[in-house]
Every structure is written in C-alpha cells, then in structure tokens.
Amino acid sequence: MSERRGIVADIGAAIAAVVLGTCIAYVDSRATWDDAGITAFALAIAAGLVTFARPSRWLPIGFVIGVPVVAFNVMRFGRWDSVIAVAFALIGAAIGGAVGRGMRRAIA
Asked: Which of 6, 20, 31, 74 is the most buried (most CB within 10 A)?
C-alpha cells in the first residue's frame, strides 16, 4: 500500500511540475513580458513547493519546471539565453527538498 501511495504522489508531483513550468514559461514567452527576476523567483518558488512534498525527487522536478521556459523561448524567439532558468528551478528544488526532508525528520 505504501509503494502505491508513493507512485501516486510521484505522478501528482510530476503533473504539478509540468503545469507550473508550462504556465511560467507561457508568461515568460510573451512579447510584452520583460522581467527575468520575477520569472526566476517564480521558478524557484514553484520548484521549492513541489519538492517540499516530494523531497527525494528534487532533481527531476527542478528540470521539469525549468525546461519549459527554455523550450518556449527557443521555439518562439530562437534564443537559448534563458537556459539559466533551469538553474533557478534546480536551486529552488534543492532548497524545497532539503526543507521537506528536514521537516519529515523533525516529525518522525
């Protein structure tokens, strides 16, 4: 039963990561949007929140949230300069994962 819950939680985290990453990427790819700081902050917070729930999956969650920003910018503008967005997502995911692990240890 516990293994099944883990799989369901992993699927839920993956869906949340795809949705959040895609939404952030959509906003970032708009022609009138020119605020990289807010995009970076949104990526870090979104990745941190998702990995807080699934701390052992911080690395794939960070990539899944950050890569859509790069993909949207490459498809729309042909530019790769937004690849740094993945780093912000990974940093947020690592922090969220560490806090999530710490909270689980404190509770147990």
From this structure: 20
CA-based angle 36:42:93, to the nearest 5?
A: 115
- How many angstroms separate the CA atoms of 69 and 91, rounded? 15
The tokens for 61 are 């969650």
For 18-30, how does the pLDDT look when each residue is reduced to its tens digit (9 = 90+)?
999 999 999 998 8
| CA 19 vs CA 5, 50, 68, 81, 82: distances in Å | 21, 11, 10, 22, 19
Q: Tell which residue, 38, 40, 48, has the closest CA to residue 16.
A: 48
> Residue 55 and residue 52: Cα distance in Å, rounded?
5
pLDDT for 35-47, tens place per residue? 889 999 999 999 9
Whole-prediction pTM: 0.90
Angle between helices 58-77 and 2-28 (to 10 degrees): 30
Phi, psi values for residue 71, rounded to 5°: -60, -45
